[in-house]
Amino acid sequence: MITNNRDDFNQCVALVFDRLYQEFPKETNITVDEFVDSSNEEMTDNYFATIRFLQREGFISYQILNYDTFTGVTLTIKGLKILDTLSTGDGETTIAQEISIALQQHSKKLIGAIIQKIINLSL
Asked: What is the H or E stretch that residue 123 is in?
């Protein structure tokens, strides 16, 4: 199955941010298999790469990667600040709330737009 790396990236960022925002400030463990079918090797690889990218860019931190599980994962101040940012739309919805809504709607287009907004805010 051919996947679109950017779609995988957007979906993974949304899932990770949604989980960590709900758990904040507690550390949590993230197993990639929770988010993606392990039989899809390309998508699994993209999710691993995305989580490591989020850590390198300072949005999240984790203690260790042990086989398929990132342990002690939490948002950084940078990640929390971005997710608590009010959306430019109605002025009352945060980016974290937008992510949650987009995931509930299974909207790749909406998820992509929100992740692009996050990228723009982080520059």
From this structure: none
CA–CA dist 62, 12 (Å, integer)? 16
Tell which residue, 6, 14, 8, 67, has the closest CA to residue 37: 8
Q: Which amino acid is at 100?
A: S
Going residue by residue through the chain (123 aa), what tens digit of pLDDT does each one get? 445 888 889 999 999 999 999 999 999 999 988 888 777 888 888 899 999 999 999 999 999 988 889 999 999 999 999 999 887 666 688 999 999 999 999 999 999 999 999 998 888
Domain locations in the chain as residue ranges: 5-122
Which residues on neighbouring strands pair with residue 86, listed in sequence order?
94
Cα–Cα distance, 28 to 19 (Å, whole number): 9
Contact 71, 64 (CB under 8 A): yes
Q: Residues 68, 74, 79, 81: what is their CA dihedral angle, to the nearest 10 degrees?
A: 160
The C-alpha atoms of residue 123 and residue 103 are separated, in whole angstroms, by: 24
Tokens found for residue 103 = 């995931």
pTM, to two decimals = 0.90
